[in-house]
Structure formats: structure tokens, C-alpha cells
Amino acid sequence: xxxxxxxxxxxxxxxxxxxxxxxxxxxxxxxxxxxxxxxxxxxxxxxxxxxxxxxxxxxxxxxxxxxxxxxxxxxxxxxxxxxxxxxxxxxxxxxxxxxxxxxxxxxxxxxxxxxxxxxxxxxxxxxxxxxxxxxxxxxxxxxxxxxxxxxxxxxxxxxxxxxxxxxxxxxxxxxxxxxxxxxxxxxxxxxxxxxxxxxxxxxxxxxxxxxxxxxxxxxxxxxxxxxxxxxxxxxxxxxxxxxxxxxxxxxxxxxxxxxxxxxxxxxxxxxxxxxxxxxxxxxxxxxxxxxxxxxxxxxxxxxxxxxxxxx
Length: 311
What we know:
This protein is of the alpha+beta class. Helices cover 22% and strands 31% of the residues.
């Protein structure tokens, strides 16, 4: 029965039910987990970097104390948000949670992990979390720990927009492009900015808002949709949203007045492969770019284009 008195922490195996986690007067059971050598090794790695709290802000909620949960998370204190976690996707075989092959980091650490060449693709369930191979856990913690005291106090990624060497979120990217439009790279540099957050008339009871509307020298309209991470797994995809805006009566009418064409541009820090595939098969002229912040501005790398884009 592993116990760390200095952390007021005790772990015990409750048969096939899972691991009982007791810390500082609180308790829950991590369903189906086993006190394997691999699991304990991950715990020791977390503890060695100061992530000694396995119960923290919102985990478990007061209503779930003493109950059964699917995941195990680590933080620097009970008042902080978790840094990384183990859950149902951590092991290769469903129902056998004894040999974790990957862990999940919060999205807020994405840029730091990438700067240190650590692979951290978004999980398929939600873009809020990142998958990191268990073999990279030590290197990941080494990279993120200088930022944990600040970042773990914050929910989401809204951290001092404009002051980082990366775009914190979609709003940060939007603000940068609009405020530094004359210095943006091609193809934006060849366009004139017409509007930011342009409201459209109600679309099937949904309010439409174009992130950026621009025009080129030939009076072609460019509908620009911005995303932090462009994924297409659930709900309306970024490409579908962009097409909906491009075909909106307000935009069609504006294009007819100018006697030009309508083009769509999707800009995100990361565009998933399925979104690139969707762009390629789109019947409207759309191009996708991944944006990277640099010391001198922003770099746009084209990652997808429809056959009719012509850009």
C-alpha cells in the first residue's frame, strides 16, 4: 500500500474496482486502474517535479467525493488546475488500466511542448487536451514546470494575450492580424481590410460573424475565418462554417455590387488532417493556412487548397 506522508497521500488497490486515492481527508476511486509498476513510475515522475496533489480544483467535485471517477490528475496544489492526467485513453486496451502508454496535458501547455519538440497532438474527444507519449513525460514536465505556477491558476488559455511568443488563442491571433494588417505576409498583404467581426443577418436562428472581411485589387471579396485549432470531428466544421458565410446573402450581394468573386481563407495555428482533406474536396474556392508567430510578425504556411481556389 503506497503511502507518502509528506503529501498526506495514500493509494490502495480495491480489487478490480480500481485504485482508492486518499489525500488530505478526501477520497475517490480511480475506476479500473491498477497499482502497476508503470503507474507508480508515472506518479514518482510527477512527484519529483512537485506535482504532488492528486486532488485539485474541481477534481473531484464535492458531489463526487467518495465516488468512482475515470481519470487521475496531478497538480502542484489543491487550489490549482491539473497539469497532466491519466484517463480511459491512456492505455492501449480498454478496461485494462495498468500500462499507461500516454498521458494528457492541458491545451494551455501546447506551445511550450512544441517549442521543445515534444509531440502533443490534440485528443480526439476534445481539442482542450493534448496527448503525450508516456516516454516523453519527464521531458514534458521539464519543459512546462517553469510555467506551471502561473498557468495552473488559469482556466483555458487566456493568458496575457499579445505578450507571448505564440498566439494564446483565437482572439490573440485575430487581434494581431487586424492591428498589424499592413505587415501581414502574402496573400493578406495584397488585400485591403474591409472589416473585423462583421455581423451578418440571422442564419437559421444562428448569428453570423465574419472574423475578417477583405478585398483585393480586383474587387474580389475574401471571407477569413480564424481558429485556434481547426478540427472537424464534431458539429459544424470550420470549412462548413466558412462556406456558410461565403454563401450568405449579405456577402453574395456585396460581391455582386463589386462585380468580383468570393474566396474563403481559413487561418489557424493548427489545421487537422481531416480539415485539410475537407478543404481539398470543397466546391468553393477555399485555402487553409497555419499561422506561426515569430519575432518579426507572423508566417502563414499553406496546408490545404480546394481545386477551384486559384490563390
